[in-house]
Amino acid sequence: MTTDSVERVEPRHLEDEMRDSFIDYSMSVIVQRALPDVRDGLKPVHRRILFAMHEAGLGPTRPHRKSATVVGDVIGKYHPHGDSAIYDSLVRMAQEFSLRYPLVDGQGNFGSIDGDSAAAYRYTEARLTGLASQMLNDIDKDTVDHTPNFDDRLREPTVLPSALPNLLVNGSSGIAVGMATNIPPHNLREVVAACHRLIEAPDTTLDELMELVRGPDFPTGGAIFGGAGIREAYREGRGRIVMRAKADIEEGRDGRDRIIVREIPFMVNKTRLIEQIAGLVRDKRVTDISDLRDESDRDGIRIVIVLKRDAVPQIVLNQLFKGTQLQSTFGVNMLALVNGEPQVLDLKTMLGHFLEHRHEVVRRRAVFELAVSKDREHILEGLTVAVHHIDEVIRIIRGSAETEVARARLRDAFGLSERQADAILNMRLARLTGLEIEKLEEELKVVRRRRMELEGILASRGRRMEIVGQELSALVDRFGDGRRTEIVPDTSDLTDEDLIAEERMVITVSHSGYIKRIEPHVYRAQQRGGRGIAGMGTKQEDWVEHLFLASTHDYLLIFTRDGRLYRLKVYQIPIARRTARGKPIVNLLRMEKGDEIASIVRVREFSDDRFLIFATREGLVKRTSLAAYRNVHSGGLRASNVREGDRLIDVKLSDGSNDVVLATRRGMAIRFSERDAREMGRPAQGVRGIRLSEGDAVVGMVVARRGGSLLTASELGMGKRSDVDDYRIQKRGGKGLINLKTTARSGLVAAVREVTDGDELMFVTRNGVINRQPAEGIRVIGRNTTGVRLVALDEGDELVDIARLIDPVEEAEDADEGAENEPGTGGDAE
After folding, report:
1. What whole-number distance in Å separates Cα of residue 717 and Cα of residue 765?
2. Measured distance CA(328)–CA(559) in Å, rounded
3. Is 768 exposed, middle or buried (0-12, 13-18, 19+ CB in 10 A)?
4. Contact 783, 739 (CB under 8 A)
5. Which CATH number does the domain housing residue 451 bear?
6. Residue range 299-340, pLDDT digits in tens
7. Separation between Cα atoms, residue 616 and residue 630, nearest integer Å
8. Residue 255 phi/psi, 5° resolution?
9. Do both 260 and 184 map to the same domain?
10. 604: number of Cβ within 10 Å
11. What is the domain range of residue 268?
């Protein structure tokens, strides 16, 4: 530094410099990069791309041109930033899955919904779409302000005239410094309808506008769940919209159900979505999918999810919604620049800014066209004077030595302006024919009418707004289309159960713990004494131990021999063929090793006025409120303490006013009022219900409440019905009365049930054979008898269970009364 130089040092705190510099940077990012203008819905880079293409003549009727040319023009003239940023922006404006109404007509590889990137800009070509050209219409008529470009060589528009309400129609997303915008796309017809309503009635309420703009309309279709998020976004400018894929359930040729996904949520990568589904299957979070294929082509998306035979499609679909981007959320944040300042806008305010912009465009266009019309009218008036005085005009021109002299003499002779005189001097002689003179006069009339029309437009705001509405209508007529995204009621509170139809099902559980459900019509009714049909394919060491009817929406309370309780919904049990073994119940419940099922009780609600009655093999009974078992965790619950050496054999549901019948293996039975067994808590062991002789054991319990008869069946297929009243009421704890005369021909008692003449019964053998027959075919006889042949058994087989199928009329009546008759050890089934 020389001694002549002047050193200037300005002291400044570092934090002040950092703060001011960061604020300048932040505002630059906010205004110049990340946020769209509320008027045309464009960020600067998009605006510059469209303007550069317009300047280059790349209209919708012109040939495509290399994208590299467009990128080069934008960089060199208006946007001095990276070429990749500019090309990426151009590509997005050409993608049909990114913009609801694309603004660039691309030719070549512009990427895919699978996340594939576009080809390099030297390979692709582009031009404006018809809709984009509508955003640039009248830009040369001083409709918008222009500003110098970055090097002051050229001028660029600060906003486009934009006849299209682009901010709502195509939406926008961007992240600035300390703020972000995320505006969803909408349907053009709906947005324009709302604009018309505001033009006609500016005091239209937001609720009335929301009747016209139903919600976002995404380019990929799909569905929006519920209107709460939409209403919040339109009122507050912020909201949360839940999007879901559209999927159909079809049955394949092999009989398996398939989920076909045809539309996915907006901005979801299809390849990544398929990977997510495969990941759930790999991690065994979804176990009912056997195959996954992507069959998408140029005609649309088609993701095929093949399910296992026993899968419930709606449950699998629900699992996929919860675990993958088949369901995703669009966080609405309607932030845009208003007069250069970022503002969060509601729907009405956003539409109002657009309409005000269009009104200003129409006004400025009218001012421009009025000036042009007045100028043309002025010229035409001068030419009209010339043709009506042509001889004098010719004389003046021929008598003038120079053009300047002729111009001055014409102005003096006819009172013309300098421009009129120049027009006369430049007029061709062909304009002097009679036809041309008529055309001249007609053009003057047209120009004068147009001038008056423009003056009327400028004098009336209502007329200008009418023009705005007309131009919007023309836009809809040309480019409007139907809604793609369906808006459906909110089901966020729905559980898997809500997606399952309520149906009656036969539930079977084998001795080895295989469970399945099947429709009851599979088992046809037969006559007494028949052999029956196979109800489950079993191994030699396995047999059907429990069989009953239940609704898909019922709870199954599963009690084990040692007194533990597990809970399962019926619809969670897989559907299987009649002869199939089913699925191991340990795969559905977290049962402890060695647990054996003692009883299964069907309930719908856990009310305080209902009771569970427990019976053990050694004759103990316990009565506990059903409400005590309302909360059962996945690992089970201690339902009752069972003594060592004893085991739970049955659990029944009661209303607190019934009689209990305990039947033993050697043919004894006792009947007592359930009130004799006081109500106890869950940990209690119970009290004595029947006193057993040595070697005897309780095999079944009946809660007598229908005024029916007691059906007793022996292991060798013998049995009979006896009137319940034949068993007099005793105090609990006694030895009871003879129930069935057990002999070598009959064998020991296998099961007891309360039945009426309207019942149909299912007799289940150890080998899995099921015989269905009406109860009225079994006659009522005395209790101290052996009975008749009920089931013809194969050699080595024996009867192990009876299930009762209720009459449909009685079933409806029970449902009306809130009655729920539960199965015990293969118990009474409804």
Report:
1. 9
2. 40
3. buried
4. yes
5. 1.10.268.10
6. 899 999 999 877 888 889 988 998 999 999 999 999 999 998
7. 22
8. 85, -5
9. no
10. 13
11. 246-325
Residue 718 domain-assigned (yes or no): yes
CA proximity to 364, closest of 665, 79, 125, 159: 159
For residue 802, what are the CA distances in angstroms to 552, 700, 790?
A: 21, 11, 11
Sheet holding 620-625: strands in order across? 648-654, 611-616, 620-625, 687-688
If asked whether residues 264 and 399 sit together in one domain, one would say: no
Residue 212 is assigned to a structural domain of this protein = no
Residue 158 inside a domain? The answer is yes
Structural domain count of the chain: 4
**Nearest one of 796, 802, 800, 794 to 778, comparing CA atoms:** 802
| Active-site residue set | 123
Work out the average pLDDT over 281-287.
89
Q: End-to-end CA distance of the chain: give it in Å, rounded.
A: 104
C-alpha–C-alpha distance, residues 810 and 606, integer Å: 22
Domain for residue 199, yes or no? no
DSSP label of 37: B
The residue out of 138, 170, 188 marking a domain boundary is 188
Least Cα distance to 791 among 545, 530, 544, 536 occurs for 530
Nearest to 600 by CA among 644, 568, 552: 568
Q: Using an 8 Å Cβ cutoff, are 245 and 263 in contact?
A: yes
- Asked whether the beta carbons of 245 and 326 are under 8 A apart, the reply is yes
Give CA–CA dist 492/509, Å, rounded: 34
Please state the pTM of the whole predicted model: 0.67
Reduced DSSP (H G I as helix, E B as strand, rest coil) percent helix, strand, coil of the chain, to 5: 35, 25, 40
List of E strands, 542-664: 544-551, 555-560, 564-569, 583-584, 597-603, 611-616, 620-625, 637-638, 648-654, 659-664
Contact 350, 181 (CB under 8 A): no
Residues 506 and 467 in one domain: no
The pLDDT assigned to 338 comes to 93
SS3 127: strand
Q: Which of 4, 18, 125, 131 is nearest to 69 (CA)?
A: 125
- Residue among 426, 366, 358 at smallest CA distance from 393: 426
Q: How far apart are CA 24 and CA 42, in angstroms?
A: 22
Angle at 218 between CA 216 and CA 219, to 5 degrees: 150
Residue with tokens 């118990």: 827
pLDDT-based confidence at 830, cuts 50/70/90? very low
> Which has the minimum average pLDDT: 103-117, 271-285, 484-498, 743-757?
484-498
Question: What residue type is 446 in one-letter code?
Answer: V
10-24, 236-250, 324-338, 421-435: which has the minimum mean pLDDT?
A: 10-24
* Closest by Cα among 381, 383, 380, 374 to 450: 374
DSSP 98: T
Nearest to 135 by CA among 32, 34, 37: 37
In whole angstroms, give the CA distance from residue 22 to residue 526: 88
Give the residue carrying structure tokens 């990977």: 275
3-class secondary-structure state, position 341: strand
